[in-house]
Amino acid sequence: MSAQRVLVAALSGFVAGVAVGLMVAPASGSEIRQRIADSASDLAGGIKDKIRNLRGQAEEEFDNLGLDTAGGENDYNS
Questions:
Q1: Domain ranges of the chain
Q2: DSSP-assigned letters across all residues of the chain
Q3: pLDDT tens digit string along 10-67?
Q4: Alpha-carbon gap, residue 76 to 56, rounded angstroms
C-alpha cells in the first residue's frame, strides 16, 4: 500500500470518527452542524499548512541540488 493511500485512509477515518462523535454528543442539530463545520475548517487549514511546509522543504532541497524550480536552466547546463 502506498503512503498516499494510507494517509487518505487515515484522514478519512479521522473525519468519520469526529463526525460520529459529534453526532452522538448531546447537542442540538445546529450546534452539531457548526461543530462539524468548524472541525472541517480546522482540518483543512492544518492540511494546507502541512502542504505549504512540504512544498517549502522540497524547494529547499531542489535549491541544495542546484536545480531551478522556476523551470529555467540549472547549474549543469550552463
A1: 3-67
A2: --HHHHHHHHHHHHHHHHHHHHHHSS--HHHHHHHHHHHHHHHHHHHHHHHHHHHHHHHHHHHHHT--TTSS--GGG-
A3: 888 888 887 787 777 777 778 878 888 888 888 888 888 888 888 888 888 888 887 5
A4: 23
